[in-house]
Amino acid sequence: MKYRTIFLSDIHLGTPGCQADLLLDFLNRHEAAQYYLVGDIVDAWRIRRKGFLWPQAHNDVVQALLEKAHGGARIYLIPGNHDEFLRSYLGTHFGGIEVCRSADFTAADGKRYLVTHGDQFDSVVVNARWLAHLGDRAYDFMLWLNTHVNRARHLWGGQYWSLSKWAKHQVKQAVNFISEYEAVLSAEAKRGGYDGVICGHIHSAAIRDLDGIAYVNTGDWVESCTAVVELEDGRLALIDWEHTARKARNRDRARRARRRQRQLENV
Prior knowledge:
The chain is of the alpha/beta class. It has eight helices and twelve strands. A seven-stranded mixed β-sheet has the order 4-5-3-2-1-11-12. Strands 6-7-8-10-9 form a five-stranded mixed β-sheet, covered by helices on one side. Helix 1 (about 20-30) runs parallel beside helix 3 (about 55-70) and helix 6 crosses helix 7. It is globular and about 70 Å long.
């Protein structure tokens, strides 16, 4: 598929939870004239805490992005809190990928969007970094537990289930935090005269109108595997690639089952 723009965030390369294979599949099947990498692309927090982890699939993702840049696509990288070391390189180009603090994006329909990771509007990250790091460790444990839960579910044919996503929607404080985060980001966009804001950070993909401002969150590539794309007319759409890939796998299983059934009938 070809789009005008693709927005990705919270890939967390360098962590076991990063679903790099799914992202690589997405990148191989989708093209755009420009890409915005909206923070937490590399997880330096995890690398500093537990050492360097860089599977081949993670390297393949970087290579795929560099190839797109070399092919003429414009790629902007906006650092987040997990890859904040890149904020020391604002204005620098790495293989055609430009590092910038935030971006002013104008869609084909003329609407202007503030593009920012969003961590600077998270009071925990700004005012209590120790608590943010503690929460990050708890999140790592939840992802580890989620992997084992899904292995067990797979044995009896269950579909992928996100423990951390479920927890966010069950815990009232987490739901309130997400709502407050959305409101604060939308208010910032309104103050800047923008029509909307495109962000990441909280791993909760969404496209919604908040008091006349378009709130767009790209989600992540740890739990949900989502991206936001700009269509030719300037409209923004959310792609759930994990859901799409799961449907394709189910179709393949069904085709194989029908083929085996026909073979048995012809014996």
